[in-house]
Amino acid sequence: MKKISVFLVDDHEIFRNGLKQLINSEPDMEVTGEASSGEDALHILETARPDVIMMDIRMPGLNGLETSSRLLQKNPQGRILFFSLFDEPDYVATALEMGGRGYILKDTSNKILLNAIRTIHQGKYYFIGEVSDVLVKKYLDARQGNGGSQDISLSRREEQIMGMINQGKNNKDIAESLQLSIRTIETHRMNILRKFQVNSIEEAIEYCKTNNLLN
């Protein structure tokens, strides 16, 4: 029987090693590759086609959401399982909109993690809580059906953040300038992507420029 091939993307080597040990101990799955950053993952996955990609959301440089968006543009059939320390609705919703097949927490049990991999490999969805395949599909259908034209505006804080991103500042620089946490900046970035219905911050910047939303 062919084993489920799993690719790991996480910037913490110790965490990746723990996942490898767990997954490789199962008779029906194995880790066939790994990357410590979104950029490395994009390079390696240009040729590799694992069955399931486990993607950390928060990473330095290219975060997991933007990495996944770019991966799925090249390989729409990719099955991505997001994992994170955070279970805020914004994270889960954005992961779903970015094409994720599942979302689990890093402190989840081994049983749930392994079940998530097997479920996603079968072509189903696996999200924390009691979110079923039917609910996920209804949510996607509803989002796709709400594509009517409407004016989109940014809050003052979002305008500040987009302006700084356009200047080339990273999350750490922005957080220090605005005296906010990096986590808060990341949440604002995800909200902006959702608001504009785009898949990357570059697309969001282009949208802002086209619609004169940047001061």
From TrEMBL:
GO biological-process terms attached to the record: phosphorelay signal transduction system; regulation of DNA-templated transcription
Residues bearing PTM 4-aspartylphosphate: D56
Residues of the HTH luxR-type domain: 147-212
PROSITE patterns: HTH_LUXR_1, HTH_LUXR_2, RESPONSE_REGULATORY
Pfam family, one: Response_reg
Domain of life: Bacteria
Keyword annotations of the record: DNA-binding, Phosphoprotein, Transcription, Transcription regulation
Domain Response regulatory: 5-121
CDD domains per record: LuxR_C_like, REC_NarL-like
Keyword Transcription regulation included in the entry's annotation: yes
Gene Ontology molecular function: DNA binding
Name of the protein in question: Two component transcriptional regulator, LuxR family
